[in-house]
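Onboarding guide, step 5: your first structure request.
Type a short instruction followed by the sequence, for example:

Predict the 3D structure of this protein.
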Amino acid sequence: MPANLPPQYIEVEKRYREAKDPEEKLLLLKELLAIIPKHKGTEKLQADLKRKISKLGDQLQSRRGSGRRMAPYRVEPEGAARVVLVGEPNSGKSSILASLTNASPQVASYPYTTQLPQPGMMPYQDIQIQLVDLPPISPEYREPWVFDLIRGSDLILLVADLGRPAVEQVRYLQGELEGRSISKPLVLVGNKVDLDGEGEQSKLLEGAFGESLPTIFVSALKGEGVDSLPEKIFNSLKLVRVYSKVPGKKPDMEQPFVFPQGTTVLEVATAIHKEVAARFKYARIWGEGKPGGIMVPTDYMVKDGDILEIHHS
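The system replies with structure tokens like these:
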């Protein structure tokens, strides 16, 4: 065995030898390749790992294709919306997930730590938004199924590591998404701002994308700027929260209905109950600039924080 292999490699290799499930063995092989020191003494071992990954990956793909198509990486949607974290290896996606949600992903200094989707729920005022940390995307390797999860999202957090050339990272990731015809709202997160001593990478990123993308700079590990992320995410999702009120009673301010901006009163009524919409007479709205409650037409577009009282026959 080549010299200078870290104890972590020995530990993961032991787990690989003991693993019985092919999916688990494949994940452990990728982890071994990620943590192995890259020098001349390990070139043969690196090549051997890559051959094993390729062979086992082909076997699993063939097995999936021979029977009913499975979705082993499916994540059940929860909350008001789904946001996925996309970035290159070691960009700090897992640290962002851990700082914003109840999830406890593995966080490490070596690349490809995240090998399966890691979901967590991010509270924003009185709603919950699902965040999903995805395996990294890089020129060396990317999981094909990752792009299916990105397509099913409502928003992408594009995470760039400010400790490295950040503009190149974002352009590469945008190219990967565009090459697969994925078009989703984006929030650009410059992470590890604590490593950007003179702010050079932040300035370059702001100059290249600041006018076209909502951009925020944080240090997930240090906690800098993270508190501003939930509001940035909510605003970029373009959602509105609507609270229901039964005539003659106080409004329910505990559990809002959540809709895309541009939703009409009639669409809200239909979502609440189709029978209510069929017998809809008129609606009264309380909200900003409407302290006493005003009657609105069916095509009135609700605003965030509106209280809606529906009258029906």
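Each response can be followed by summary notes, for example: The chain is about 35% helix and 20% strand.
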